[in-house]
Amino acid sequence: MKFYYFSIIFLSIQLLNLNNILGQSDVRNDVATPKNSSVEAWITSEDNSTTRGVYDATYTTSSRILIKYFNDAYSSSRRFNCHGYAWHMVEGGDPRWIGYSVPTSEDIYMTDGSYIQVCNETYPGKVSWADGDHSAITTSAPGVWTSKWNRYPLMTHDKNDNPFGFVFKYYVSTKISGNTSNFCSGTRTFSVQNISGATYSWIYSSTLSVIGSTNTSQIVIQRNGSLSGPSWVEVQISTPCSPTSSTRRINFSVGTPPSSSVYADWDNPLKIIAGADPVTGATSYKWYVNNVFIKSTSTPNTSLSYNGNCTTSVTVGVEVVTSCGTSGKTNTNIGTAPCDNYYIIAPNPAQDVITISAGEQSGMAAKTGLLSSSVNNITHVKIFNSRGIVLKSLQYTEPGKQVQVNLAGLTPGIYFVEVSNGNNKQTKMLVITR
Known about the structure:
There is one protein chain. The chain has about 425 residues and is mainly beta. It is about 5% helix and about 40% strand. The protein folds into 4 domains: about 15-170, no CATH class; about 185-255; about 255-335, Immunoglobulins (Immunoglobulin-like, Sandwich); about 340-434, Immunoglobulin-like (Sandwich), CATH 2.60.40. It has helices at about 50-60, 80-90, 110, 365-370; strands at about 25-30, 30, 40, 40-45, 65, 95-100, 115-120, 125-130, 135-140, 145-150, 155-160, 170-175, 185-190, 200-205, 210, 220-225, 230-240, 245-255, 260-270, 270-275, 285-290, 290-295, 300-305, 315-320, 325, 330-335, 345, 355-360, 380-385, 390-400, 400-405, 415-420, 425-430. The protein is flat, with a radius of gyration of 27 Å. The two termini are about 30 Å apart.
């Protein structure tokens, strides 16, 4: 359902007031499908309370149940629409408007395998209007659905009580349910929604063996002997009404966890920023500097203190701990600590915004008697991923000794920041967490 869609079939055409619906304070903030496909989405500003109250009163009937999503006095809201509610928010996402500028933004949920089309209304499930622009979710009562009507109320209503049309397509999630913690012994069951008329085909990694059938909506697996390592199960689902089959996979670890690659860099001469490839089922990560244990963390990123000098080569190591044991230690050499000026990134790890500053002479440089060079202005900042793909490139026409960089659009993980002053450049590691 898009901003410009409503027509004269609504109860009060004078309430549409779509002339100025594109708010100046609206901000694009994309989301992802369950299979991690990008979806254009927007954070949109709210209508005032008087307007929301008028909309609620206009669309209230004896057969509709208005839902107050924000636990305030109103159901109507401009903060989300039908697609944002049915495909994103119901699955735990924050309020979003999907379909703000592209009428088919929500279609990716139906085509990338996150959901599969079925022949009949199914609960729990989704509904897409084939002859209109609207989405709903089914309820336990057949023919009674919940949907958000544009900026108007979020309602539970009869399926035929709607202004969007009467040709429906039905979808269900292909999500695999099951325990993904580290698998040591015994059996484990994974399942998908049982769909009438569907066929299922499960496959699995060599670290596993199966007990029973592989062509129902669930699979029972066990560890294949003493094999350990990254493991997975995958299911292919087909239905009579879906033009294509859908494939979903779930990952976990079996037995002793695999070693994890470790990344590290100098945040400053007395601090190291470190990160590791996350391991499914990990309960903690044990960090070492020059083979000396420093600390354990629950997430695969941290900062580590360094109390040595700037002439000794330094290694950073990590061990992965799971319920089945501890991996071997992986080390990476990050060379010697910087003894001269450097660019400082703060905070690191970061979430939303970082500040990059040209550093002053460090205490380490003073201790070693090394002289610092002049502080350089910042003219250009690039952020790229571990594959070397540049994701942000910022040019500053008025160079300064400090700049701020917004990290919007970058998912949690390990990145690299290249800072230059036109003549020289330096690259530092950045960890983003949320």
